[in-house]
Amino acid sequence: MSDSDNSAQGVDADLIEFLRRAIETMDFGAVEITIHNGAVVQVERKEKVRFSPPKTGTRTAGGNRS
Hints:
single chain; alpha+beta; 2 helices; 2 strands; 27% helix
């Protein structure tokens, strides 16, 4: 999509850049766009961070109690 395509459809170049960065900088997650009356009014960026499972013999949150 070229810049002229964006302006013809009323899409702001800053919004396109924001969405591009939101997607490129995320490993896992979602970008949700809320539209009212044909205009973008909100963008939510939900990122998931994944951790490796604990090593054997490490105590977890529930832990072993004696």
